[in-house]
Amino acid sequence: MSGKVEDEGPDPVDVHVGLAVKAYRLRAGMNQQSLGKAVKVTFQQIQKYEKGANRISASMLHRIAGVLDFHPGDVFPVHGVEAASPQAGFGAIKGSHELAESFSRMPAPNRALLLKVAREFERPDAA
């Protein structure tokens, strides 16, 4: 055995952070090209960050957070919750980005109604 650790893919925390950055980017209505230009990297690099394929350095996370207006600590998984699981945060759930985009475009009365329906569905006896 060579002592080399087999590549097991991206670290779950890196994936979680990338998904959270993507959620903030979408919420800001910004595409990958614009974010990349603002933080002086290519849109391909932003893609890699958002997929967790490349880790985001502390300084880069600070720059991205400044552009997208969030606190850098807000993108990390909750301690004690497995990273990249649905419980780790809204941004880790498939379809959440599309839902958030649609929700943000709705008139206020529709958002209030949808939120009321969502709260009903989260109850265990609603199924």
Describe the structure.
With 127 residues, the chain is mostly helical. It has two domains: 81 residues, lambda repressor-like DNA-binding domains (434 Repressor (Amino-terminal Domain)), CATH 1.10.260.40; 33 residues, no CATH class. Helix content is 54%, strand content 0%. It is built from six helices and no strands. Helix 1 runs parallel beside helix 5. The longest helix is centred in the first third of the chain and has 16 residues. 22% of the residues are buried.
- Major β-sheet annotation: none
Terminus-to-terminus distance: 51 Å
How many distinct helices?
6
CATH-level-2 architecture of the largest domain: Orthogonal Bundle
- Measured as a percent range, the helix fraction is 40-55%
Report the uncertain regions. Answer: 1-5, 83-88
Which topology of the largest domain does CATH recognise?
434 Repressor (Amino-terminal Domain)
Secondary structure: number of strands: 0
> What is the residue-averaged pLDDT?
81
- Cα radius of gyration in angstroms: 17 Å
The CATH superfamily of the largest domain is identified as lambda repressor-like DNA-binding domains
Strand content: under 5%
In the CATH hierarchy, what is the class of the largest domain?
Mainly Alpha
Q: Count structural domains.
A: 2
Task: Give the overall form.
Answer: globular
Derived from helix and strand composition plus strand pairing, the structural class reads: mainly alpha
SSE succession: HHHHHH
